[in-house]
Amino acid sequence: MKRAVIVAVVAVACVPAEPPPLPANTFAFAVFGDGPYRLPERAAFGRLIDDVNRSDVAWFLHVGDILSGSCSNKKLDGMLEQLNTIRHPVLYTPGDNEWTDCHRRSFDPLERLQRIRATYFKEPTKSIAGAAMPVESQSADPAWKEFVENVRWRRGGFLFVTVHLVGSYNGASRFDGRTAANDSAVVRRTAAAVAWTDSAFGIAESDSLSGVVIAFHADPRFHRTRNNPYESFLRRVAERTAAFRGQVLLIHGDTHEYILDHPLPRPGTKEPLANLTRLETFGSPDIGWVRVVVDTVAGRFVQFEPRKIR
């Protein structure tokens, strides 16, 4: 199915012009991912933070791949320090660069994941950086106690959820030294994502919410029907969305392209689910963010504004 881009990219200067004030009964949030990687991008990311800090967003959501070229503690800690310069609450779901792919730098991926959980999610009941915002973590359930990174929160009749799904074939790509522990971790992490998604739709339905927003890192290859490591997640999302009367927004990064479309078909058909929208944000070498505006009365997303930094 051909991608149908439904919002045009806006031409911008070095830093985009300040957006107009939000209309009544709306709120906005920021989406960013896959960067900064290289030195020039780090300078652009500083300008992006300035742009976000002068904006009216309720929070800043980073959908993973916070670094490239190094998996060191210094690099991880440095990015957390920079995220703490954002004045809004910062939410984050891990990408493959910061742990799954660290075998390329002679690190143990599962050890890197534990380091991220211990530093970025040391207080799993609140946002990871910036202003403190309370969240609910999947780790509160003893059955999923290690998944401090999967969180949810509410605003304006919408439920927001992060689930840990990464690129590199959902962390299943082969590498020298891979063990059975790496394989079983993929299975359990994916099961946690499906369970957390199921729980989100259950809450949205029982509380008659207007919508569900699910954020993760990986491009889940929506139209790949064979050997897709995200198949169980996509199947569950499609089933729950088809039965849900509200809006569903899937937010991800991974393939570094700004896309807004309706890519997931209704179960058993090729017809796209009209109430499900996919937003993929910018990625290296492009440094930019997307301002998403939500109407809490109409119960829908009314604007997706790409703000690319030059």
Short synopsis of the structure:
The protein has 310 residues and is an alpha/beta fold. The protein is 26% helix and 20% strand.
Descriptive keywords:
single chain; about 300 residues; alpha/beta; Purple Acid Phosphatase, chain A, domain 2; five-stranded mixed beta sheet; 6 helices; globular
Structural account:
The structure is a single chain. The chain has a seven-stranded mixed beta sheet with strand order 4-5-6-7-8-10-9, covered by helices on one side. It has six helices and twelve strands. The protein has a single domain (26-309), classed as Metallo-dependent phosphatases (Purple Acid Phosphatase, chain A, domain 2), CATH 3.60.21.10. The chain is of the alpha/beta class and 310 residues long. 26% of the residues lie in helices and 20% in strands. Mean pLDDT is 94; it is low at 1-13. Helix 5 (180-206) runs parallel beside helix 6. It has helices spanning 39-53, 73-83, 109-120, 167-171, 180-206, 231-242, and strands at 26-32, 60-62, 90-92, 136-137, 151-155, 158-162, 211-215, 247-252, 259-261, 276-280, 287-295, 300-309. Helix 6 links the parallel strand 7 (211-215) and strand 8.
